[in-house]
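We close this part of the discussion by returning to an individual protein. The encoding preserves chain order, so positions in sequence and tokens coincide. The sequence in question and its structure tokens are set out directly beneath this paragraph:

===
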Amino acid sequence: MKYAIEIRGVTKLALAKHVGIKAPSVSAWLSGKSKSMSAEHAIAVCEFLGITQEWLFLGKGNIDEIKKDSHKRKALTQLTADLPEFAIDEAIRRISDIKEFVETVKKNTAAEQ
């Protein structure tokens, strides 16, 4: 879980708030002081970090394969839920532009190395 928190760039406090617990509980999980986690908390942790329960508990699978229902994807869906079609079309166009920009940056960075 510590690795997932680091690569997702989230804080222990943000995770604790999402799960509905206090930050010391997250610290106890991470340090190994607490060996147990309720199913409800495990589901919330996985949802927030965009990981599977299999990865969380067994370390199996690829952490980079973000679940389709990660919290950021849900937030994006919620933001566009009430928009009219023309606004959704514009959002898609802008996101496509961002994706193209990111791909260009990746190519340029790889070429420099």
The helical segments are 2-8, 12-19, 23-31, 39-49, 53-58, 71-80, 85-112.
